[in-house]
Prior knowledge:
By secondary structure, the protein is an alpha+beta fold. It has helices at 41-59, 63-83, 135-141, 147-151, 189-192, 197-206, 210-223, 243-254, 261-264; strands spanning 2-11, 21-25, 29-36, 91-92, 94-102, 105-113, 117-122, 125-128, 172-176, 183-187, 230-240, 276-277. The protein is globular and about 65 Å long. It binds manganese (II) ion (MN).
Amino acid sequence: MTSLRCGAATDVGLVRPNNQDDYLADETLFAVADGMGGAAGGEIASRTAVAALKATFGADPTANGLADGVRNANRAVWDKAQERPDLRGMGTTMTAMALVEDRSEDVLAVVNVGDSRVYLFRDGVLDQLTDDHSVPEELLRAGRLTPAEAARHPQRNVLTRVLGVDDEVEVDCFRVTPYKGDRLVLASDGLYNEVDEEGIASVMRREADPEAAARQLVEQARAGGGADNITVVVVDVVDDDDRSARASATVAAAAMPSRSSAEARTGPTSRDEPARAWT
Ligand code: MN
């Protein structure tokens, strides 16, 4: 059995009047939703989406159930916006992750729409697993902007994909093999617009408790200006059924005797494979 331990924190920040982010941190299902839309719209959008995701995944706790959960979340927000003129135009991001079984192996299924993110902290290195669906990030991926230009682009907050503004939505899906010691960070843009990747990695290195780590990241985002709502969910892989030990042993057996196990782990059959897209 793969075992996870998680902690979460959310905060309105220092500028916004209300917190339109929502999150979920269940035993095997984790999500961050960043709502948008005037008056009460953003809060209703993110909460509606999280509730629909939870219900769908609860009935079908698989990778497909997770992706269907995001599609049902989209439909639930869309339907509510059609019923109530005051909520027209509301929407939400949704980034979610679930521990599921796939061909009798435990995997972490990750789904994303919008610009909330999932990071993987593994062997001391932080990697962003999800792609942001925002104007500058799409231009960056197309090679038309540099990372520095994207980071200060005036349309940084303009999303190219979001839940609730159409009756259908395209969902990005990834899968990650979980290894003991992995830490996954789900976050709304209120975190990463205030705290850079080195800052996030530094907290991951220093603070072993996921709840305390989530709280520290929120505090750092507030200290950085807190211009937006901030939500962080930290999920630690505390047991992996010895997958990590088996992967290291396989590589160590094939490696030169003089190589350290840390070096050996970076070999071709190591656990450092990138996240693979699965649809
Ligand atoms: Mn936000």
